[in-house]
Structure formats: C-alpha cells, structure tokens
Amino acid sequence: MLLKNLSELNGTSGDERLVRNFLHQHLEPFVETINVDKMGNLIATKNGHLGGPRVMIAAHMDEVALMIMEITNDGYLKFQPVGGIDPRILISKPVQINESLVGVIGAKAIHLQKRSERQKALSFDQLYIDIGAKSKEDAAKQVKLGDYAYFMTKCEPFGEGLYKGKAFDDRVGCAILVELLKKSYDFPLVAAFTVQEEVGLRGAKVAAYHIAPDFAIVIEGTVAADVADREEEGWVTELGQGPACSLMDRTTLYNPQLIQWVTELARQKGIPLQFRRGSSGGNDAGPIHVSKAGIPTIVLSVPCRYIHSFASVISVKDYSACLNLVDELLKELPGKLGVGSIDKEDNL
Amino acid sequence: MGNAQMESAREFLSLLSMSSGVSGYEGSIATSVMERLIPLTDEVRCDTIGNVYALKKGHGKRSKIMLAAHMDEIGLIVKKIDPRGFLSFTSIGGVDQRTLLSQEVLVHGRRPIPGIIGCLPPHLLQQGDPAQAVKMEEMSIDVGLSFAKINEVIQVGDVITLRRETYPLLNNVMAGKSLDDRAGVVVMMVCLQELSRLKHSHDVIAVATTQEEIGARGALTSAYTLNPDLAVAIDVTHGSTPDTKGQVSIDLGKGPAVALGPNIHPAIYRHFSETAQEHRLPFQIEPTPGHSGTDAWPIQVTQAGIPTGLISIPLRYMHTSVETLDLQDVLDSGKLLAHFIASLPDDLEGFLCY
What we know:
The complex is a heterodimer. Chain A has helices at 2-8, 17-27, 136-140, 168-181, 202-211, 256-269, 285-289, 316-336; strands spanning 33-36, 42-46, 55-60, 65-71, 77-82, 93-97, 101-105, 148-151, 156-158, 162-165, 189-194, 215-223, 244-246, 274-276, 297-304, 312-315. Chain A is of the alpha+beta class.
C-alpha cells in the first residue's frame, strides 16, 4: 500500500533521498518527465507539451527527525531536532539510525529521581541515544556526526476507518499527488515533491520559482487537536469531517475567491469539507504564493492527530475525500483560468 | 555452545518481553514460562496467586533451594471512558509519567485493542509548556473507536500495556520493555540448563513470582508455601548511564551484581563471590544498606526466617519501555547461579551457621 510504504520510509529535511528514490521509481511510468532539481525537489510533469496555463501540485517529502551532534566518551549519541519536535515525546522510545542500527532514548529510572524531577520535563540537551556501544570509538564505527535518527513506527489500520503511522505530515500529501498523477488531465500539470518544508519551507521556494506555475495546490497533513478534554474552539481540524481548506496561517492569507470556489465545488460534488480553524504553523503555500509576481494558491489538508510524533492518526475517509476534491478542482481548473489572469473576479 | 545458549536466551527474553503480564494479570505470561520450564524440570505447577513453580530434583540429601524471579510488569489501568471515546488511566506500579507521551499501547479488553497515548503537536504548545512534564491525569488514550464501540470491548478496570518490540543493539546489548524482571526468569532458565550438566545435591525450585512491582506479594506467599532452606532472588539493578553519575556504580557487561547487606545471608554472599572467582565468572559487588526492593526482602523473613541471597542483572532505564541490558550478563548470572548451587555442601545447616 502506497501510504504505508511512504510512511515507513525515513526522510527528514536534507535527507529525503529514500523517499525521493521511491517516488521517482514509482512515478516513472505515469509521467512524461521526472527530474530532481538543485535543491533535491522531485519534479514530475504531465502534458508539458501542451500550451496554456501550468498547474503546480505540491507536497513535501521531509519529516521531522533528530540529527546526531556528538558522540560522548562513553559512546552515547547527543542530538538536536530537525524540525519541530516536543522533546517530551522522545523518552522511552526506539529510533532508527542509518537503516541498520537501532538506538533507544531512555532516561534516569524513576527510582533514582527526586520527587521534583518527576514534574520537570527533560530538554534536548539532557537526552541521548544509547546504541549499546562500549566507547566513543566503538560508536564511531557505526555512526557519524550529522547522521539522522528516525521514529520507528509501523503504519497500520487503527480503530474504525483510521490509520496510524509516522510522517503522515506530509506523506499523505505525497501519496495523494501520486494518485493524481496516475489520472489524466488535459493541461500541463507539474507535481513538486518538495524538500526541507519542516525547516523553513525552503524546497518549495525554489520549486515555485523554476516551475513558474499559473496556479498552485498544496496538499498537506495538518493538525487535528480534536482530543479529550480540549474545547472545540481549539481543535483546528477534526478527523472524519473531510479535508481542511486553509484560511490563514503564519505564512499565507488565502484568497477569499479561491476559498469560495473550493467550498462551492465541494458542496456541489457532495464532498465533505472543513476549514482549518487555527492560524498557527505554515506550509509550502507561503513561499509559493509570493513567488515571482505572485501565484494563486490553495491548500487542502488531511487532518492528522498527534502530528510530529511517533504515532499520528488519519481517517481514510478524509484521505479519499481530499483526493476526490483535488481531482474535481483540477478538472474544473482550466475553465477557471484565464491565460495568466486568475485574479480577475469574473473568472472565478 | 556459547552462541546457541546466547540465542536461546535472546529468543526467550524477546518472547517474554513482548508478552503482557501486569501485576495481578500474569495469567498468559505464566503459560509461556511453564511451557519453557517443563522440559528442564521434573515438575511444574502454579498456585492460587499465580506463581509458577518448577522443581528440579537433586541427587543427594535434598534440602530445598528456592530461586525467585518476578514475571509481572508495571502497567496502566483504564480509569474512565469519556463520551468522545478517549480513555483516562492510572498506573499499576512505579510508572514514570514522563515516559508515556506518544506511546503505542494495548488495552486488554475483551480482545487486545491497540491505542495511542496522545500528545499535542508542537504547533499548539504555549511558551513554557515543554519545560513541564505532562501529568498522567491529563493524558488520554485514543483507540480510534466511538463511545458505543468502545463499550462493547473495553471497560473501566481493563489493564493496559505498552506495545514494544525488542531490539538488538551493538555488542549483545538488547532493549525492550519489562526486561525487569523477565531477564531474571531467563537467568533461571539458563541456570536450569546448566544444572542439567552439573551434579547438584539439593532440590531446586525455580519460582516465577507475581505482583513484585506492587510489593513482592507473590514472593511472600510462594516462600511461605515452599519454606526453603535457602533462597536466591534474581532481579535487575540500575546500570550506570550519563545521567546517573554519582548515583549508580554498576555497569552493563561486567557480570551480575551480587548483593550484600542486611537482606543477605553473609555465607551466601561469600559463596557467590568464591564461586565466581573459582569459575572465572565476572561479577560486581552491590552493597545494599537496607531494603533491596526485590523479592529477597519478604522471602528473608518468611516463616522462621530463610537465608537469602540476591543477584541482579545490570539494566539501564529501568521502568521505561526501552530497558537495556547485556545478554552476556544474563548468561553469566545463570552460570554463576548454577555453579553456586552445584557447589553447595550437603550439610546446608553447617554452611549457613553464623
């Protein structure tokens, strides 16, 4: 299964190779051209020979992970996060290093802690990975500074109609892009599987510049905080209520006419849709919508509980609805696009 | 031989580690323990509190030697099911709340139900949040089911274990959950394997005890039942890590830690130390000034008093789901224990005389 494959591959910002190679190989039969740009973005094009407006669909390949910063004299590994990770989730977990090596992040046993220590969280500086090495030299045979350590989580069906796994942000987007590329459209469609979203939306900036699209759709995995004891105002999105259309976040104010179009089309086609009701975080739309002279951009996201942790959860229904909705949007898009004049009100 | 024994220890410890057996709920792990001990012993049975006894008869005068390692683990228990389908929980035994966020769990309802202990994404944290440990009362388990569905399979009082495989690290080091004290059960297996090649006078009864994590209650009743002439508890002890400097002086890979102090009969400590030296087995001395925190504690004061010893396997990150030990220490513990038993004199009474 595509999403399972993608979720279980390891690829953080700057180390997207395994994800990129998998996608490259998987997509080759379905696209005309596929290549890797100078940043490491994977760019796949359909109908490149056709004239008319070009549409960019984008999803990022990278996930959050840890980078090895130091090997201690005792052979333990010190690390720092790549992307946003709450250090409190790391204790008592296994991590995968360099494909063949497993390490664990433990902590001082409860028996050895003072009462006050139990209330305090440990910071990145206090944590370390144990690979069973006897010494610095022993560890250095297996690990180099700058290597990465990844969450180890199987992607599996969960509860009723859900999946759990790591890196759904944004491997769900990658999987949806792949499924879209297997369909046929009659306009130039360029898919960008971007790098380095988690460390500052950097791959998308470059990709948007050289693709120079007339329209962009970003597909994300986003925060769903519809969990116990949390007031509905703070949920951001809710599982099972369809893809979330972004209104505003840290990097983008979304075009109200485009939001209107997405909303109406979803209603018309009977596809569930919700709004992303929170303004924290940002995504690849940030650099894309201000690329060159500005690119009309929308973001649709699959709601995802426990994002940036070892085990996140999505709804299969939301995933399918997101795929359907983007497919419908793409089908309708050529009619909506004047040549380079998407911003004209009467076109939308 | 060495390698085959290492592999059999690794395989049995993995099996036990991935089994579930929270204190008071050791039924299914007891079955695995019994299956493995039957071919190595003359008689296996279990008692009303769940302890498993495996008797290996001696050739001589037949005093009774009791071995005790606990098979229970710390865990969680369902406290409340909220209308939106999330489970609140509390702990059984000494669970560090800081080890729980973002863990996968199994809720042992009518059938095992996978769940996740949820956490807020970093995007939604307030400034200062990451400095405070999240309290267990504020956590909840997501099983991805509606309230109605949950009520068909889960009820308040169901126990919860962490889902964790075992992982080989470098140098025969292994990580997993509940190696405290399933590694002790494996030590008893290794000891029984060794004893099948050594001549031993006394009867040996290996007991996989229950409810140690909540107060060594299985040891209390099994020691009473057996009333042995000599007992040795096998448990784990803290191995040194970068954050325990000055607190812990036992290291992984340097052999079993042999305890001495008020909980330990001096002749037993002495005999362990002499046996290790004679057979060139590595060991570390673990001075224990009072409560050893193991089955040895209640066993010692059972009935009219039982001469008791304690050997411990060094273990890092105790009571986390990534407890880490060196399998060589497990083998060395089993061998030391076997040689200790085989070299005991027929006259235990004289041996144990103060």
